User: Fold these one by one.
Assistant:
Number 1:
Amino acid sequence: MPRYMSPEEQARYLKRRRKRIELMKTIGVFVILSLGALLYLAPLFWMISTSIKNDIQTFADPPILIPNPPVLDNYVEILTSPRWRRWAWNTIYLTGMGLIGTLLSTSVSAYSFARLQWPGRNFWFIVLLSTMMLPYQVTMVPTYLIFTQLGWVNTFKPLTVPPFVAVGGAFYIFLLRQFFMTIPKELDEAAIIDGCSTFRIFWNIILPLAKPALATVAIFTYMSHWNAFLTPLIYIRDSELFTLTLGLSSLRTNYAVSGIIMWNELMAASILIALPCMLLFLFAQRYFIQGVVMSGLKG
């Protein structure tokens, strides 16, 4: 600070200095975040770049960062392939069934734990939460043996029936329960006075108010079923029943057997598989963030 300054000048000088320091901090944070974003976006950029290369550009040495000219033949080949269309339909069907079943089962279970009074409710809720500590690998073998005895192996039933008949995922039930508990119970009491049944209160009052939480569960469920690999791999044998992830893995295996991996086709297929999830989160992130925050899960 310069010497022989009046109090007013000193105050203005300190104010300008604080502004410069804040500006430097903002620029530093922006630079660090930008570098981090570029680090995470680099693989995605390389995938997109490889997906629009021809075979010669794909195996060029040194690698070509920006293809010239870019080609869309890889995307056209995948979109016009009958087997890829079949795998896409299988994935859409399994994702849709899992989404409907999970939303129905988890919402009903969460409503029971949040709004209804019945003996042992808190105890069984703790038991339900304790199942989150069991990894899928623990229940994988006995579940497979059960479905084998039922004759469901190599069918869609092990992937579509459980979301409907089970009580739903513990995490989703916990999320919805937390949201349901934020809804004033005076609404239930007013509805009961008007003659509403328990199911009608759930269907006409609770669910319309729980759209953010339901959207969050729907996004999580959609992404988990769309990207599922291990469970379809265990139960599906026929290539006609493959999902997109299994089809991509089989394509990778076929290339490895032949000795030449067509990375441009694999990258194009990977982008097409990941694109629906990215678009869903992009357009539904407002509901997703609102549901997480209002459910009491924010950090």
Number 2:
Amino acid sequence: MNHESTSLVAVVIDDEPQIRKLLSASLSSEHYTVYEAENGQLGLMEIAYRKPDVILLDLGLPDMDGIEVIRRLREWSKVPVIVLSVREGVEDKVSALDAGADDYLTKPFHTAELFARLRAIVRHAAGSQVVPQISTGHLNIDLSTRAVSLSGLEIHLTATEYALLRLLAVNLGKVVTQPQLMREVWGPASEENSHYLRVYMRHLRKKIETDPALPKLIINEPGIGYRLVDIS
């Protein structure tokens, strides 16, 4: 499933195949699209690529502790994280929450409780977002449906183009730095591949600018980043 869909997306990071299978089946029944990873590094890569709505994370991973996964993730993403772990100690729960986890559920758990916590987290995340529609000039971005229109006509954007435009839109009128754009769209350790950003910005301008050679909406601030102009 691609990212233009409005279906919720979950990434499950757990080294136990049985747990991943259980969670995948359970979440699919709740209309989630589920992607799996068996270790922390693969999990971070899946998160960067899939842009999920929620992450279910085990702490006991083979390559790194789940706490470290949360810390690395929070350097570039605010996506909600629910920790699912056999560790029952208060210190483990506090460490996970302090690192940036949104909730902590001890294994074994009831799926009904997990779904209740998922609903609460997704509601909270949706409530903390900016207004669902952002407009500037003839451009309109509907964040709830991921629909983008120009002068009332819907235009098709790829997942990456939309991710770039959304990040600029929620920071309307403000400069978004090149490193931030790279981190949030392509994930950690991507800042050196700045040519990706230039290529996709050209593609995006061709779709939303009247004259891409003389852009009026997406302005480049040399050496800093890009800004979506607020045209009232």
Number 3:
Amino acid sequence: MSDTINMQIGTKPQADWISVDLIDIDHNYQRDIDERRVRKLLREFHWSKFGSVILVAKEDGRYNCTDGQHRLEAARQHPLINSVPAVINPVTDTQSEAISFLAINRDRKAVSTVEQYWAGLQAGDPEFTRLKAILDATGCEVAQAAGIVKPHITNSVSTLIRAIKAYGEEAVKQAIMIIRKAWPNDNKALKGATIVSLSRLIRNNSALDHDRMATLLSRKQQGDIAGHAESIRKISGGTAETAITKTIVEIYNKGLSINLIEIGVGK
């Protein structure tokens, strides 16, 4: 029985009421406040719904909030509230705080993979660290908050990690470079499905001409590619990613009699 139970349970946290003026948010691993969510909490505010925020104690007598920042912000803005119930952990460094944040939030649907990514970097998560290295090499990055769209910015964290596992770091890096070259000013160019499809083709076709691929894709809109892929999927079935891969193969092979590429084995 003991081999299935973690016996290293750490230091017991304390419970207390803490002044909201003593609580900080570390934006190294937590994203910006969603004001709409805060307003909703204020409209419906009641202590019976509040629970406790989770804090870590700092050496200067202040605290960082690792869970409950929106409830905390609602409490700050409420005219009748100056302190909140808190569970206080004796964690004092940023990496440990980020690890705590991930452990609390990783399985919550409300926490986006973008938020998990930034917290994961602070926590030293190997998957997120590996993804950052690939993106850095291509001049790209993950959005600072979920939903932000700009050239060379991606929100597709989980899809990229899956692509790395399936096709390797180099294939994903080259896929991103092709996309950058094909659509340098497209705010939504770095879509997960496109990156996965190109990574698969690069992994399965050693003779694939990257310049040719970038040039041919630049003549297409991603919306047109997605539309054609959906037509293929309706006829032959399969996943959206496989249909996009087939569409890209058609684009690349058109007019060629030799050195054609093929989909190959995928995951």
